[in-house]
Amino acid sequence: MRKWCFRTIWIALVVCISAAPASADAVVAQPPVDEMYGSVEIPPVAVVPAVVPMTPAAIVEDPSGPSPAAVLASMGYRSEIERTWFESGAASGSRGTKTRYRALELGADNLDAAARALIASGTESQALTNRLLAVRLAPDLPLAHIALAHEQWRAGEYRAALDRMARSVLAIPRNLEASIWLVGSLLVMFGTVLIAASLVFMLVVGASVFTHAAHDLGDVISTRMPAFGRTALLASITLAPLAIGEGALGVVLVIFAVSCVYGGPRHRLVLVLSGMLLVLGVFPVMRSAGQVLTALEADPVASATLAVVRGTATDSQVELLREADLHGDELAKRILAVRARRVGDVDEAQERMLQLVQSKPDDVLALTGLGNIAFDSGRNEEAIGYYELAAAQDSNAILMFNLSQAYAKAFRMEEFEHSLARAQELDPELIGELSRIGDTEFVADIPFSILSIRARMISAADGDALSSSITRVLAPGWLGQTWMHVGGGFLLVALLSALFSGRYQHASLCSRCGRRICARCDDSMWSNELCDGCHHLFNRPQGTDPALRMARVQALRVRESRMDNVRTAVSLLIPGASGLLARRPDLCFMGLIFFAWALVLVLWRDGVVPDPLSVGGAGSIAFVAAGVVMGLLYLAVMLTGLLIRRSL
User: Fold this and answer.
1) Most C-beta atoms within 10 A of its C-beta, which of 67, 165, 231, 318?
2) How do residues 614-625 score in pLDDT, each as one tens digit?
């Protein structure tokens, strides 16, 4: 009981003190910010005055006069946040802190434009302080984090700089422009890897059996056909799809057929897998990549919504949103309510939010906004009612903080403690920042979610252009019309190859001397891996002259040593060759995938498209780090193939 009485008295004192008029010259020292923003102290800043109840009379004295938005526009500002930024004085600490508090109040948790201005302004001695403030104003902007990391590294704070680099990478998914840039770039890289690795694998396997297939094809015409004639015959058949307009993919389909016929069961399995991944890369992946990369400009309403969220909306974009609102666009309705709040037009904001709640009673953003308007106007019980309705739908840190402020004002101490504790559990860093404001009249709007904007943009985008540009190069004919044509072609060839692969004896090479083995050319063939001469040399030594036998064995050993060196060099220099020489096509294909990933991540370390002034060096750090990992995995696969080959 005593504890409750003391807390009640303390809250009453705080409320009384905050109700007194604040002096314009009052100054308070900022709390330590070493843990979040580095070791530089932010200068003392002026106390943010308590929020004036935002009644229509407080904003527009003459109801027949211009609207608050028009008043702001006449002053050259697009929102109350922008006015706070330009009217807060020249001191970066004061300007940044006041703007941050005003932005939180109006639901703008990231001021990208202000952060970029801080990064680009100031002297060299002010760079670290400005970039600390840039991170504070736009915590979800990777560019701000990487700029701060650069300054911390220059200042010798290496550990803090590395931590900030990691934070810059982690901030990419939270920023709409950066996330679209990242996902679009990764999808293009993924599609490129699938296409390149699959094509190279088919070509490598086809090259390894080409001479055997050419020899057997020549036997169909004449067993006396010279080797160059056999090679030319198979080459002409392989290149025939180019003549009929099917392009490179038609050539690959012929090579795929030859590889399936002459490869073993494991080769056929990996070949079918590579064919499936090739189709996947050309069509769905590249189509999705094109859809994401063109998303930012695909939907004008979504683009205008993002501009309002960022505080950079033009008059034409606002008019576009108003026109979309007249046609019932839900996204336009929601963002216009947010904009009205940010330009200080309480009447319009309240009316729009009431309409949102009428159409969707569980709209947390609108319910919280109505609660904030009621709280600012002194209608505390009404505000609590809106907050509790919103909390019943979805609890978040800002909403619970607002509810705790309203409970404290109503002297409902138990509910105050519970809601504040809940807010701290949800986001202790943000609630700590809100609590440091020290204003019992302060409540914050919920930030507008970028998820709805991103989903709207991507759904409106069309990715067929990128996929079509690739098929025009690889398969300009019938094969490239749809994925079913290509996929069906690979599947049909694989089935036919499996049926006919064992119908005749394939030519091969002797594993000892490299001589060609063919049942049609040599009636005394012993196996597909050992010619007749080597069979007698190693399996029937009693039938050969000892001196000649030793000389022949020595020559074969020298040849084997030389070929082993050649195979090792080929394994090291040609991606995927170590797995193929180890008779492990799965390792070959895996190595090609890892190598292709490492290559594209390093070559496209700055992204497939230009940075939308949001990522900075964070994307390069992420891509290079991932490329190094892929390179190490490729080396591991290559060494595995070398070890397996030596054990054969």
Assistant:
1) 165
2) 998 888 999 999
